[in-house]
TrEMBL record:
Matches recorded under Gene3D superfamilies: MFS general substrate transporter like domains (1.20.1250.20)
Family matches, as Pfam families: Sugar_tr
Transmembrane segments: 143-163, 169-190, 202-224, 236-256
Biased composition (Basic and acidic residues): 498-513
Molecular function terms, GO-annotated: transmembrane transporter activity
Classification via CDD domains: MFS_OAT
Name this protein carries in UniProt: Solute carrier family 22 member 13
Region (Disordered): 488-519
GO cellular component terms given for this protein: membrane
Length: 519
């Protein structure tokens, strides 16, 4: 669990690190053409002669007076009246650290490329869900996890050396696909290696490292303002995880469902040896699959009525989770306070949110927790967007932080809940499908922000309405607290066994061995 968790420390950097690379700065058109006829002009005189001004007397950022072939005296006497878009680039404040915005001129007509590039990254997450989810059910959790870690390290570091913004977007798409592979294999490995009572803890401990990563992101963004150096600092440490090739085991449960019982026995014996335990041979002999099970497909999730309902509703929940989570995270620059302080608060609130999930899931069950958290995150977003005036940055930020708390807790709940709802033969396929749903929302989240140019409340009203609908739908799902994981697609729902805890205790005390009774 610790090794799986370490790979998530830098995940927030890949998700929302770009926010700190495209910080808005003052800019205006490059009008150095006038220097040819007026080399001794001061900067203020140059700007007065070549840039139009808005109603407030500030220089226009995206237009300039058209260059003419007049001498300086004629220009000063008659002035310039015809305007055009910036044709020679832009000028930024001197000493400004190199950022994506200043290096690739993501201003004016190219301003929307920032949000579009975030959507391209989410497209990568979607492609990763489509590719790595089914592959993980077919060739195993471990190889897909290792491949994803390698691709993330390679392409995220390569992103720091791109010569053009469109190449940057292409590399970010590949990084998104690899991040998706990591995100959907970790819950499966975590839940399949522990017993019933430890499943929420296993998944949510890994998610706590995501929260720590949010805090690291705030520190990196504040300390490193050059975007290329920031990209390297937030990506290169992934290369340190290559030793995972020798330490990350395959899922014993997955091996059993594939009929590879002998391999599963060897891994369990290695686990017992690591914990200074011994497994009696007669206990290992019980480790037999009931029947040879083939990998499930996406169609299998829609053939059976109970799986069709579960898949549809939990996919809607993931969509809602992702929309409100990224809607808040990507708007960190819009709350009116210092973005680094706001990000620090966002990261700090995620840690208790994920820890609280451990207790909420045990006390109230999966269904109620998922539904209520979605409802709260949606309602908080709506209240903020519809009721608060734009001149209340502190109140706005506080509500946004509370909304981030509930959205984070809801997202973590979805990971645990989904892993328990889908059968082993199609768990990664189901998780991949849910992840695809979340990535569609992730693609839309930056684009919905563009609607803010019509009214500031529109984006957050959308971000808030969808979770409310998703939360209501979650009341139709079955409860999985204390239930055994399904291995095949035959069972109508995860079965809660009254003997589960007693059997687990009995097996765990027999010669000091803990073996999952449902296997």
């Amino acid at each position: 669990i610790l090794f799986l968790s370490l790979s998530l420390l830098l995940n927030p950097f890949q998700m929302i690190g770009q926010v700190f690379m495209v910080v808005d700065v003052p800019h205006h058109c490059d009008t150095s053409w006038i220097r040819a006829v007026g080399p001794n002009l001061t900067e203020e005189e140059q700007l007065n002669l070549t840039l139009p001004q808005d109603a407030d007397g500030a220089y226009e950022q995206c237009s300039m007076y058209s260059p003419v072939d007049w001498d300086l005296d004629s220009i000063m006497a008659y002035g310039l009246n015809t305007t055009e878009k910036c044709s020679n680039g832009w000028v930024y404040p001197p000493g400004q650290p190199l950022s994506l915005l200043t290096e690739f001129d993501l201003v004016c007509d190219k301003k929307d490329l920032n949000d579009i590039s975030q959507s391209i990254y989410m497209v990568g997450l979607l492609l990763g869900s489509m590719i790595f989810g089914p592959l993980s059910d077919r060739i195993g959790r471990r190889p897909i996890f290792l491949i994803s870690v390698f691709l993330q390290a390679l392409f995220s570091v390569a992103t720091a050396f791109v010569p053009h913004f469109y190449v940057y977007m292409a590399f970010r798409c590949v990084v998104g696909a690899s991040v998706s592979g990591v995100l959907i294999t970790i819950p499966a490995l975590a839940t399949e290696w522990v017993g019933v009572s430890y499943r929420p803890k296993a998944v949510l401990i890994t998610h706590c490292f995501l929260a720590i990563g949010q805090l690291i992101l705030a520190g990196l963004g504040y300390g490193i303002r050059n975007w290329r150096l920031l990209e390297i600092a937030g990506s290169a440490p992934m290369f340190a995880l290559f030793f995972y090739i020798w330490v990350i085991p395959e899922s014993a449960r997955w091996l059993v469902t594939k009929g590879r019982v002998e391999e599963a026995k060897k891994i369990l014996q290695k686990a017992a040896s690591t914990n200074k335990r011994t497994i009696p041979p007669e206990l290992l002999e019980q480790l037999k699959p009931e029947k040879q099970t083939k990998s499930g497909s996406t169609l299998d999730l829609f053939r059976k009525k109970h799986l069709r309902k579960v898949t549809s509703i939990i996919s809607c929940a993931w969509f809602a989770d992702s929309l409100v989570y990224y809607g808040l995270s990507l708007n960190v620059t819009s709350f009116g306070l210092d973005i680094y302080l706001t990000q620090l608060a966002f990261g700090a609130v995620e840690l208790p949110a994920r820890i609280c999930c451990i207790f909420l899931l045990q006390w109230f069950g999966r269904k109620k927790t998922q539904a209520v958290l979605l409802l709260l995150s949606g309602l908080l977003s709506q209240q903020w967007s519809l009721l608060l005036p734009s001149d209340q940055p502190i109140v706005t930020t506080v509500l946004a932080i509370i909304g981030k708390f509930t959205a984070t807790a809801s997202f973590s709940t979805s990971y645990v809940y989904s892993a328990e709802l889908f059968p082993t033969v199609a768990r990664q396929t189901g998780m991949g499908l849910c992840s695809m749903s979340a990535r569609v929302a992730g693609i839309l989240a930056p684009l919905i922000r563009l609607l803010g140019q019509y009214h500031r409340a529109i984006p957050m009203a959308i971000y808030g309405s969808v979770p409310v609908v998703g939360g209501l739908l979650c009341f139709l799902l079955p409860e999985t607290r204390g239930a055994d994981l399904m291995d095949g697609t035959g069972a109508a729902s995860p079965q809660v066994s009254k003997k589960t805890e007693n059997l687990s205790k009995k097996d765990s005390t027999k010669d000091g061995v803990e073996l999952e009774t449902d296997i």
